[in-house]
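Action item from last week, closing it out:
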Amino acid sequence: MSKIRVLSEQLSNRIAAGEVIERPASVVKELVENSIDAGASRIGVTVEKAGQKLIAVSDDGSGMDADDALLCLEPHATAKIHQEEDIDHIVTLGFRGEALPSIASVSRFTLRTRLHDTGEGTEVIVNGGKAIHSVPVGCAPGTEIQVRDLFFNTPARRKFMRSAATEERQIQEMMYQLALPYPGISFELTVDGTRVFSSPGAPTLESRITAFFGKTFMAAMLPVNFSSEDVRIEGFISMHGFTRSSRREQRTFVNGRSVESPGFYRGVREGYGGMVEVGRFPPVILFLTIDPYEVDVNVHPAKREVRFRQEYKLSGMIAEAIRNALRQSPAPTVNIDPAISLRSLLESTEVSYVPSDREQAVMNFGRPEIQAFEYVAPSMPPLPSRTAPAEEVEITVSHVPEESPGEGEPVFPGSGRVNILGFLDRSYLLATADNGLLVIDQHAAHERVLFERLLRDAGKGAATQKLLLPITLELSRAEAAYIGKNSEVFEKLGFDIAPLSSNTVMICAVPPGIRQENIGGVIRDMLSELMDDSLTGRNQLDVIARCACKAAVKAHDFLTLEEARGLIAQMAQCELPFSCPHGRPTIINISIAELEKRFGRR
């Protein structure tokens, strides 16, 4: 008896659906791509219950006659490929003819379509891959498809869907990816009866970017316009200093198709070079136009990834396009608040110089009771010298307590009483302990203190620090919607964030101890991590608290002796005091034994 069998059409369609239709956003992608390929100038998408109850896509495209309305539901039936050579020259978004039969096999599917030059349309209903009927119907020119009860007959797939909020965010992000390359097409998205956005067709991309991501985002972007050989690279990249904590806002397109490509990302990374710190990602919206023969869009079932014939050459072109845009960008201008002290301004610019002799105290090695210190003038203190004279030691302690250690010094577990000696480079606390010398990173230490306090107070009526002047923050519509739906999570940690419009929020309060400088950037980093995946409960709190810690005391910030003592005392109360929330050490302990070994006493 033969062991090999030919699968039924219904079963093969369900297998194909598993490859092509990963989640509701995949359905939106396939249907909207068909609408774009059909020449639509208006596309509307309606979603209910995160796409599980209903996904409806309507357009005013070319439409189909009765025969094509039935034929389009056959496996691998397509009007976009006619001969084998066409596979190497794909110019449409869809081409394999898998999408509609795959979707119809795992849903209750209704298709209504009509040609523009006929007075009657066609309705086709399919239930889980089984055709119910095909009848004439009155409908508008174009095509409307309704997908109900997605995965109703594949409970295993439905079980693996994320939360409703996550699936809605995926759908909205998918709409961004579909709408950005086609600013001339009008797009509208409605979720559970609420219009999320309505973006009319426009001749330029700027208005669509502004509508989706806000004026602040658009103001921080630079235009890219690059041509070389048969390649054209257009779009926008972020100015220096405007970054995110994930690659989520790096949107890349090839011939109008949203794609993921290591070569593309490599070009972006090389273009910015050392201007972006490790772990940060500049937002970009870049469109690559290239001969279809040079790119293979058929390497992934969902057409999400592409492969280039000359990937490294293309990466170099992308890097060159970005470097050109950055070189041609105008010098940034800053309006300085008169309330900011001159000292703070100079420190922020990292200006350094060698103080004159009258400003630099003489080091007296003959009197051990006198420690090395840098003279601090009453008004404007000199900044630490970057190049020390030959007769001076390389490292100076920038501040020494004026009072002797006493009973007020903090006690640290495992080290006993901690006596603060001074501050090194306004970044590290130097202290003695029973077991040696402690070097404490003030920023990492404060991050740990803030992180544990935020989580400890979460849900216990966390205290808040009202802002004297609330901060207005412009976000993308998806980010603002996320805050609105998860406001209680932010409130648990002490944030008071109120919505003002569809893409604007007002920060009215922050947790005590969180510095207000760049609080907008901190909130954006939170959202970048929170919206990358489906996070609930404790995981959400962890992400928010970890990002909030970026507002901790920074390196080179001036601390008083009492502030330093308080910081160490709070560290002593932490559960995990020896590393910051990101994994970096907070303390380096140089033991007495190690010092004796280094000085040749052992």
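Closing note: DSSP finds 18 helices and 25 strands in the chain.
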